[in-house]
Write a structure and sequence with these properties.
The protein is of the alpha/beta class. It has twelve helices and 15 strands. Strands 3, 4, 5, 6, 7, 14 and 15 form a seven-stranded mixed sheet that branches. The N and C termini lie close together (about 10 Å). Belongs to the zinc-containing alcohol dehydrogenase family.
């Protein structure tokens, strides 16, 4: 099969012909119909993820059709159209038994612990516990975004963030995760403030439901601006980028007893950022992490999409072929363009 492979961290990936994967006893092989290009893939390529072993094929936001099934798989068969969370739980550890597969102790992560979906085929383990059947009306490009950015944002806003209708929600960073959060928060009845340093992204956030936009490049004090427009601070705030400054702004922009959810990854030199704990203590703020969403939680999300309440397809900014994936991956840190880039031809 054709796959995008890198032999060293930070070295430019190339298209190679590599052996077709075979399913493990508890896994399947999926012919990839679409794969999102995510900043987490860029972090992996840069060497920020200790699970990656070289050579490596990136890609963790995927959807496609099952073409081979392991002997132990009972719930899926060849021909099924599926997607999968970017964290696949083993089903046996304590978090999995409690229904929290997104923090599994022995998790399978395509594109990180195993080769991923920047390829014609991808092998997926723990299939019965983690695959999600796709509605017939949902195309692969839309479904690919559900595995990471959209599903992660959905859980961050609705489950970890516990958003209630009428609450102010500040979203710091309007990339794929942030724009997903804007759309989801608005659909759930939140009053959304979108924060970014790019006017084009802020304009898209406004079209997706943001009531207020704040340009962090031209606004001297982002938390103060949020405090003013909300008359005391956001009830819920998300750092959807993953940077010490957006983390700090998110916490400082909360009202008393507000909730901060860290969604964007803080890795490498940013892995242990300073946090204004004096404000956390004095105002009894909550600091929460959010790491994907388990497969069993997908029906609520899929139901909202099916009813037209949410439209992940609106986030797709560019469709490319596998031959363009190297440029898309290596350029992720430039933060250029709007929306989600999707590979949909292989």
């Amino acid at each position: 099969m054709r796959a995008l492979v890198y032999e060293a961290f930070g070295a430019r990936p190339t298209i190679e012909t590599v052996p077709d994967p075979v399913p493990t006893p508890d896994g399947v092989v999926v012919q990839v119909g679409a794969s999102g290009v995510c900043r987490s893939d860029w972090h992996g390529w840069m060497g920020h993820d200790p699970d990656i072993r070289l050579p490596h094929v990136p890609g963790h936001e995927l959807a496609g059709t099952i073409v081979a099934v392991g002997a132990q798989v009972t719930s899926f068969r060849v021909g099924d159209r599926v997607t999968v969370p970017f964290v696949a739980g083993c089903g046996r550890c304590e978090p999995c038994r409690a229904g929290q597969q997104q923090v599994c102790h022995a998790q399978f992560q395509p594109g990180f612990t195993h080769w991923g979906s920047f390829a014609q085929f991808v092998a997926l383990g723990y299939a019965d516990q983690n695959l999600v059947r796709l509605p017939d009306a949902m195309d692969f490009a839309t479904a690919a975004s559900l595995g990471c950015r959209f599903a992660t944002s959905f859980r961050a806003v609705s489950q970890q963030g516990r958003l209630r209708g009428g609450e102010w929600v500040a979203v710091h960073g309007c990339g794929g995760v942030g724009l997903s959060a804007v759309m989801i928060a608005q659909a759930l009845g939140g009053r959304v403030i979108a924060v970014d340093i790019d006017d084009e992204r802020l304009a898209l956030a406004a079209r997706l439901g943001a009531e207020v936009t704040v340009n962090g490049r031209t606004t001297p004090d982002v938390p103060a601006a949020i405090m003013e427009v909300t008359d005391g601070g956001a009830h819920l705030s998300l750092d959807a980028l993953g940077h010490p400054q957006t983390l700090r702004n998110s916490v400082l922009g909360l009202r008393t007893r507000g909730r901060h959810v860290q969604v964007g990854l803080l890795l490498a030199d940013h892995a242990q950022p300073p946090v204004p704990m004096d404000r956390v203590i004095a105002r009894e703020l909550e600091l929460l992490g959010s790491h994907g969403m388990a497969a069993h939680a997908y029906p609520e999300l899929l139901g909202m999409i099916g009813r037209g309440v949410l439209n992940p397809a609106a986030l797709i900014g560019q469709r490319i072929g596998l031959d363009g994936a190297a440029d898309a991956l290596t350029g992720m840190d430039a933060f250029t363009g709007t929306g989600v880039t999707v590979i949909d031809s292989f």
